């Protein structure tokens, strides 16, 4: 894996309809229905790992797994404990180079129960640099016998290129061992296209010396047959017969870039692997855009890199010294004429990928979505009817190939026909997977799946990096307990009414019984919704135990805090609380009241002020009294996989957002940085490369940049005084579609229990509201510039509007040939009318005019509904709205 495949746009996935399918259908059998997602449960076995790489499940259910920095560990299902067994001494990393080498692969011998052999692929702490495939003996107590190491195979590498290492291990049904290796080539100097630089002294920039070289073990999938004495023999059917001059007989597959995770079907011995592809965002003179691939090798073959990508899309021969483009390579007869090639000149024909997809939406495989790419191949599942296991996967997934993507965090089940050709694919656990960048996926002896999750951010020690087991429940499912309470905070005596109606049971016909434990350990009520009085101060973990008719149960917990009340924080200001006009400052005063604190501690009062350049239309994050707007740029970043390499304040592979904001503070760089997001590049923040994001629009990239740059000045507007004035001047430069947000909070002294925080927020928007920024729509079309397709009964809504001081509403509108009425109603589309606008048509959709209508202030802050009325036909397509303004 490498940083060139880490940052890209939001993950956008397409829902699949439930459908009935079997891999090789039997006409005499009833079709098998797809199991519901909630029949699968992901159980965390071991967490807080550090860059987990690969796992192997022993016949007794023990899970052995490795972490890239050298840790070899065991999870024991009998004790539920994880034990570190050994830490390998590895070749130290160069901090200036891309992450890659380390402890990469692990697998157990097929006869592990008898011989206790275990294999590792790692970078020993020795020079010259190399990757070792080594066999060890694991003692009966699971201690690794270091004296037993036999180096089965060495793969020399250029240390200065630690990216693209591959390193996955797998076995076929005949006891042959497969090892994937990467091209060990610098990917950054070829613009995301073919790295075939033959300039003298730049050998590490030429993948023709590795992937395209029949005499080199890099950029390959190697297949050998290990022997008992630690040597190996060459199986029949490898790509080059033993003794062929200019070749290595160990090669089963050549022409790979970075085959990061591989798997072998245990029935057919067909090899599958995920290929991490190049970075080019678009087709260009230098060849096709980049694709990630899921590959299948029914027999030995050449899969094309660096001459082809995807379904054998060819690159042109390019002279890096003269910058001249030559002919496109021929997939039927690829020729390696590199000066760095030590093998055959004429290569085997290029084979197409099974599945291939770019950053953008794939025409051939649209379900995979768009965004960053990091394809990996998991197991082919074979249903065993005779296996006695309550957690084994169902027959529905028999013969399905499971694939996954590290960047997009999805898992798919791929269906193949009787000849193992692609038929279809469908999302696995789409609604409840919550996969945290899947790194390895294997089937255990119990028929359950075991997964290593890398965690959220590349290159750091993630707290959500973990080993999980995915179990299937084909029978009764336990109900889910979600207790609710009328109050969760108060002073003693506190009477609370609890509500058990929020519970959920996937088997909806079940009858439930209830047990409530309010304090202590004894059950104190069996009602569905009881009341209870807490006489003493304290923090109580109230438990609700819900049990169905079959005895399956779950426990929900709700915390009740007795002995303190929430502080009351209020932001006071004169005038309107919804709109900013062109005033220079906003005067404010923050008051704090707390029943328990005899004195308000000023250090616990926090007041901040910020300008949000443009607001997301996604659901707002709730504040104490009103919604707090989410910046559109922040929303786009959080919906994307940017956080794989960039954090707000923490260190990662790329610079954090605060560092970027501070570097470019007060500079006019929005367009420049937006282009950097789309086109990619390197050099500004060290040697790490940021790939292009062609699926991100210019407007979206600019919103991301504006949001990041806005972070630079936030510290200056934090911890403001309780009374003062803040400037309303940023909208003059950044546009009137943003929001000013003044927030205040106070954390009390805890009363008789724990501290509580009260808060208030004042959110001001421009009094000129662009129509397309409406909060909700009904039977109205929205474009990037206006609202249209408005008919009789259509309405739009603006949330949380204060009409203090507002005398009229002005509309900038057009209407072809229909006069109608626009009513403003309070609270709902049928609420009280506070304004009526009887408008006349403008005679042309392109002719916009400004007209006003008076408005009455109903008092307070309200949701306003703008309802269109035209009872007589024609009453469709009656209005187009550009903007409206609330005028004093």
TrEMBL record:
UniProt signal peptide: 1-24
Domain Cytochrome c: 628-712
Coiled-coil blocks: none
Domain CBM6: 767-887
Pfam families for the chain: CBM_6, Cytochrom_C, GSDH, PKD_4
Domain PKD stretches: 479-562
Record keywords: Heme, Iron, Metal-binding, Signal
Domain of life of the organism encoding this protein: Bacteria
Official protein name in the record: PQQ-dependent sugar dehydrogenase
